[in-house]
Write a structure and sequence with these properties.
The complex is a heterodimer of chains A (602) and B (381). Chain A is of the alpha+beta class and 602 residues long. Chain A has 13 helices and 34 strands. The chains are: A alpha+beta (602), B alpha/beta (381). Chains A and B meet through helix 12 of A and helix 9, helix 10, strand 12, helix 12 and helix 16 of B.
Chain lengths: 602, 381
């Protein structure tokens, strides 16, 4: 493959809100440029969906090299970098954007701008991208391209008069999109003769190839056999295999300035390939390394425990495997009196948490109990130390605590007008502080500052339910703010149940405590004795419920013909008890933990 | 072998199928030939099983059903006579028969007595016409009382069955009904709390919302009422649902089940527990009349399946049955079967006043008996 001149390369990404048709458009672009035949196309689409599902978040940036002969008769290489749409993976988006010069902004021609559209497009603007607005799904009866065009200009503040109209699903306007990429997005800059300077965009573990590294070359050239250096760590590797995705992996001899591709170099672990690193030639190093990305930190934590304690080793192996491919997922062992051995895991956000949990269950066949998600609290001790608290169970003695700070987010919510009242009430109830309220046609945009610990609980579920699914939501972590936070314990028969303790704002404690007690009351089966369920802050009880004692529980008749049946019933009860956790004298079913932590209604 | 033995004979025919009943029953359509063949099959089954058990001292014969009072007294007589030959009894032999309290069946009581039945178990169910109607019974309260009086005159021992916790039944109404039953002169009363068994007409009615049984609170009150009234009337609560006037009035046959003794089961769907060559075998006869007969023809036995009970299974049966009676179950017996209830749980249950452990026996207290399923489940681990 001969080197393409910079002027004939375009590196671009597609930003969109979820469901606005980004994946379909990508597939169409691949098809239109002959990357795959119609038959292969089908397979490819399936494959990529599999990968997205299976690899979940780790298939971070998907890149495809498209060879396109434009209407002007010239051949162009278009590198499409597909980015995840969800806020949890904002850092993925940011590094993809850093590897491109332009973006296609896909907006659904009937739904218009949504919360994620906004977050992602601003990132693209921050990266100095040229932006081509594309209105998708224009063939739907509900499409209102003129209104949406105006909305894009209003809300985002970019010129949308030349927006390309298309329908990825029906194949309308695909050619126009490709022409717009060629003519309206800038070519990459770079010096092919300068020392090698490449950005490590992503890395993942492939069972056959080992660690595969995705790079964008800015200056110079990478060749097979070349010794390259990761500038941040100083580690040196010999390039073994170079290639591009078309979208099938295709080997090439070299990757030059402006190009995007992958390499392998006997790198052992994904953790050795730090995303955002600058890669240079070991002997002829660049003098201007790229500004790397800040390391991603998990912000949401929860405990994961196997339902069957015997599965613990399997869980250990599984989290290890996931971590191999996903450096943003962290874990450490945790012991809970209620739930036995498990892991305290860190995630980028709630979606990340859900994906990991689902992968553990689906791919590794593990039945898990997840404890309530929590955030990192910064605890200022009386002696001046600051402790990061990942697990409410580790809360120090309150008398030694001077102050507690919690992370706040800036949440952007788009909602149809009719649900605005409910959305505002939800935000206020969650200690939100309104920053902004504006209208875009009949849709309202509200921006709130919210404590993350109120959001990780069930905010998103509630938002969806009060808006019948119409509200969209995005957030960014902003800052730590001091808060009047207290540790609330749940006591069952006077014994604290560690898995249920949580940090809450003092004003919300009673409400949450009452909710938890009511829920546990319904979930704990009647025993032979009365079981008090209490919520407590320190020694003070703030809520209480009681599980009545059984009054009558005996089979009326038991004669010769009933013995076998009764014995089987007993055996069944014994089986059932294996799924119970013993708490002092009380047996609590596993489902109780799952259900209690999933507080659906307020 | 000297282990005592009981014989249970299942007669599956009923004049009418009661809406609460989940036993192995069929409508009696007067098929004389089929019924005669069934009697022969039962006799063959008995003979074959006697080969397996050997000559053991027979302590009880129990005709259950179904409605064995629909049997020909001749057939009852033949079965009793055969049983006495197969298993010579060495002391007392209790012979019971379940009967429906209709005028038609009352006319046969003499015949049953002549056949050797000495204890009648009368399925009164209620002494209230409205309740009897609800329970789908084919007799009224007056008719039932007549049957009871006749039975008392004819049989040495009389037991009556009652069902309580019917929709709308107050504790006072139940106390009155129970008192009236105690006046009938029976020496044994078995009041059963109405249980909604799956697959019955009542089960469907409950699902539809057409029948609302009392909640467990009212059920508990009615149970306590039962204990109080019968104890005042001189009946000892020797089992969860069985009360007798003195030791002699206790059902020897049912004690076989609760004490873990051996019993031979014959007739369609009958279960048995027999010790053969040191192993305790659970036997299950084919449920359908035709299948049972075919099975007997083919093998001499009515069994559709049998299972050697492991020590653990035996222990569980001992525990769940033994705790139902006032004498309880001995720890040694459980230990011999490798069951030693968890000490902490035993202590905890004793502290709650639900069990006692005196004399190295595990016994449920009256309070514990009302909660026995939960108690057993705790003890079984």
């Amino acid at each position: 493959m001969s080197t393409t001149p910079l002027s004939h390369i375009r590196n671009f990404s597609i930003v969109a809100h979820i469901d606005h048709g980004k994946s379909t458009l990508s597939d169409r672009l691949i098809q239109e440029t002959g990357g795959l035949t119609a038959r292969e196309m089908k397979e490819q689409v399936l494959d990529s969906m599999d990968i997205e599902r299976e690899r979940g978040i780790t298939i971070k940036a998907q890149t495809v090299r498209l060879n396109y002969r434009a209407d002007n008769g010239e051949d162009y290489v278009l590198n499409l970098m597909d980015t995840p749409g969800h806020v949890d993976f904002a850092y993925e988006v940011s590094r993809c954007l850093a590897a491109c010069e332009g973006s296609i902004l896909v907006v659904d021609a009937s739904q218009g701008v949504e919360a994620q559209t906004l977050a992602n497009v601003y990132q693209a603007i921050d990266n100095n991208h040229e932006i081509v607005p594309v209105l998708n799904k224009i063939d739907l009866p509900a499409a209102e391209p003129e209104r949406i065009r105006a909305q894009i200009e209003d809300v985002i503040g970019i010129d949308a008069s030349d927006a390309v109209l298309c329908s990825a699903k029906s194949g309308i306007g695909i050619h126009d999109v490709l022409e717009a990429v060629v003519h309206r997005l800038p070519p990459p800059k770079g010096d092919i003769d300068a020392p090698l300077k490449a950005l490590l965009v992503d890395a993942w573990y492939d069972p056959y190839l080992g660690v595969v590294v995705l790079v964008r070359v800015f200056d110079g050239t990478m060749k097979r056999g070349q010794k390259v250096k990761m500038m941040q760590t100083g580690a040196v590797y010999t390039l073994e295999k170079l290639g591009v995705f078309q979208p099938k992996a295709t080997d090439v001899d070299s990757l030059s300035a402006g190009e995007v591709g992958f390499f392998t170099a006997s790198i052992k672990e994904v953790a050795d390939a730090a995303v955002g690193a600058t890669i240079t030639d070991d002997r002829r190093q660049t003098t201007s390394p790229l500004i790397g990305f800040k390391e991603v930190q998990p912000v949401v934590f929860c405990g994961l425990f196997p339902v069957d304690a015997a599965d613990f080793e399997d869980l250990r192996a599984a989290v290890g495997r996931l971590r191999l491919n996903d450096a943003s997922f962290t874990y450490e062992m945790e012991t809970s009196a209620a739930l036995g051995f498990g892991f305290r895991c860190g995630f980028l956000g709630l979606l990340h948490l859900e994906i990991i949990q689902e992968r553990l269950q689906r791919e590794f066949n593990l039945d898990l109990i997840a404890t309530a998600p929590s955030v990192i609290y910064k605890i200022g001790m009386n002696n001046g130390d600051v402790i990061e608290l990942h697990n409410p169970a580790d809360m120090p003695d309150p008398v030694k605590i001077d102050s507690i700070a919690e992370p706040w987010i800036k949440a952007t919510i788009f909602t149809p007008d009719e649900y605005l009242g409910a959305v505002i009430k939800l935000c206020q109830d969650r200690r939100g502080q309104q920053r902004e309220l504006s209208y875009v046609g009949t849709r309202a945009m509200v921006v709130y500052d919210l404590p993350l610990n109120e959001v990780v609980f069930d905010f998103y579920d509630r938002l969806k339910s009060i808006s019948k699914g119409y509200a969209s939501f995005d957030y960014q972590i902003e800052e730590y703010r001091p808060g009047d936070l207290v540790k609330m314990s749940i006591l069952v028969n006077a014994e604290p149940v560690d898995a249920l303790s949580m940090l809450v704002h003092r004003d919300r404690a009673e409400h949450r405590g009452r909710g938890m007690c009511e829920k546990m009351k319904d979930l704990i089966p009647q025993h032979l004795f009365v079981i008090p369920i209490q919520a407590a802050i320190g020694g003070r009880i703030i809520a209480r419920e009681t599980v009545r004692a059984l009054r009558k529980d005996v089979t009326a008749k038991c004669y010769g013909g009933d013995l076998s049946r009764k014995r089987k019933l007993l055996d069944k009860q014994k089986e059932g008890k294996k799924k119970m956790r013993q708490f002092g004298k009380v047996e609590i079913p596993q489902e109780a933990f799952i259900a209690a932590l999933k507080m659906d209604a307020d | 072998m000297t282990l005592p033995l009981g014989l249970y004979v299942h007669w599956p025919y009923c004049a009418r199928i009661c809406p609460y009943c989940d036993f192995n029953v069929v409508r009696d359509r007067g098929r004389k030939v089929e019924q005669a063949q069934l009697v022969e099959a039962i006799l063959t089954d008995m003979r074959t099983q006697a080969d397996l058990t050997g000559p053991r001292p027979l302590v009880s014969i129990f005709f259950g059903g179904g409605t064995p009072s629909l049997m020909e007294p001749d057939a009852v007589a033949r079965i009793i006579a055969e049983a006495k030959i197969l298993w010579p009894s060495q002391g007392a032999l209790e012979i019971s028969l379940e009967a429906n309290p209709t005028d038609a069946e009352r006319d046969r009581f003499e015949g049953f007595a002549k056949a050797g039945v000495e204890r009648l178990s009368l399925g009164l169910q209620s002494l209230n016409d409205a309740s009897l109607k609800l329970l789908g019974r084919n007799h009224g309260a007056d008719e039932a009382q007549r049957a009871a009086r006749t039975a008392r005159d004819i049989f040495a021992r009389l037991s009556v069955d009652l069902i309580y916790a019917l929709p709308g039944q107050s504790p006072q109404a139940w106390a009155d009904e129970l008192s009236a039953a105690a006046d009938l002169g029976a020496d044994h009363i078995s009041p059963y709390q109405l249980t909604i068994e799956s697959g019955t007409a009542f089960d469907r009615a409950v699902r539809r919302g057409a029948l609302v049984p009392p909640d467990d609170e009212l059920g508990a009150v009615l149970y306590e009422t039962t204990q109080t009234v019968l104890s005042q009337r001189g009946f000892d609560a020797y089992e969860v649902s069985n009360h007798a006037k003195g030791q002699a009035a206790r059902s020897r046959h049912n004690l076989i089940y609760w004490r873990g003794e051996d019993y031979v089961g014959v007739g369609p769907g009958a279960h048995g527990r027999i010790t053969v060559e040191g192993e305790r075998v659970a036997t299950f006869a084919a449920s359908k009349i035709g299948d049972y007969r075919d099975q007997v023809e083919a093998t001499g036995l009515g069994w559709e399946s049998e299972q050697v009970l492991s020590p653990q299974e035996q222990a569980e049966e001992r525990l769940l049955a033994g705790l139902r009676i006032d004498e309880g179950v001995s720890f040694n017996e459980l230990a011999a079967l490798d069951l030693t209830p968890d000490h902490h749980r035993v202590v905890q249950l004793a502290q709650l006043g639900l069990i006692t452990t005196e004399g190295n026996r595990l016994c449920a207290t009256p309070q514990g008996r009302a909660l026995l399923d939960a108690v057993t489940s705790v003890l079984a681990g």
